[in-house]
């Protein structure tokens, strides 16, 4: 099972010091947090995509490539990549490039996001959000698996003889998670393609998230990808720790009270009792997280939000130290107990390569520069799919 941290990249005023970090300070601070996450034993680091203040991560692939260069084992991901307002061609290109630079240590989570104004900023209509998510992923899925694509959809200009470059590393696409907190069509989409499903699992009781997770698992089995236990599920969560619960509550309360999302709303005690948020001792974080397994059964990835609401970088690094020394070792041992052999693990790039090629060497695409161009879609091989494939060494 994988454990990680994820960030929404907010640049928020610290209610204790009264200071708001600069974008530059916050970007470098989050990079420091990501590197330290690997050092204390986390498996995954993920950053969101936003195009509005107070968030900075408008280009997650750039940020993650930087983190890849400073780490050795950390898997890099997103939380989320906007499948609705991004061109699928750009997603295919940018994340394939990240996959190469990270040597396969990456995957991505696709979602619709939660910022309504982003749709007109990128020339989209929010009323088409769900059809956009479905159509755009259909194209992205093909772009990573077909060397030459002809496409005529509902939301972008047609493609003729188009090849996305670079091709995926080892000709194996990155693993994709589909994230949603309320939309069964997204869970259905994840199940249909045999991809992973991620429930943000932050703002509502576990029973709310369970409905979509259960539906995804049922549909995963329906589509013949394996049993429900072989479906790939990820959960979010939030935590703030101190050596004892009283100190944790007093230290986190001003940040909770002023948080951009739930500040000036419910009491901290009420929110923590009704949602997956844990504010307390390391043992309380362990106990509540292990309780997720009682609700959802065995799952594959647990992510924690720990860097939001204006918490200074120093405090977040201290949180990581507590996770590494007191929480992660216990969670790993306890989650492994009684875990059935049929339960899937979150796939690595090596796993995906083995699943496709077995013991054979993976294919390494070498595009033919004379096959045409991707600007106009012109290609001398348009008259025959077989010829188009032959231009890429595909029989």
From TrEMBL:
Q: Which residue range or ranges hold the Luciferase-like domain?
A: 1-295
Q: Which Pfam families match?
A: Bac_luciferase
- Matching InterPro entries: Bact_Lucif_Oxidored, LLM_FMN-dep_put, Luciferase-like_dom, Luciferase-like_sf
UniProtKB keywords: Monooxygenase, Oxidoreductase
Q: Which domain of life is it from?
A: Bacteria
The record's region (Disordered) falls at 339-395
Q: Where is the signal peptide?
A: none
Compositionally biased tracts (Polar residues): 371-382
Q: Which Gene3D superfamilies match?
A: Luciferase-like domain (3.20.20.30)
Q: What is this protein called?
A: LLM class flavin-dependent oxidoreductase
Q: Which organism is it from?
A: Leucobacter manosquensis
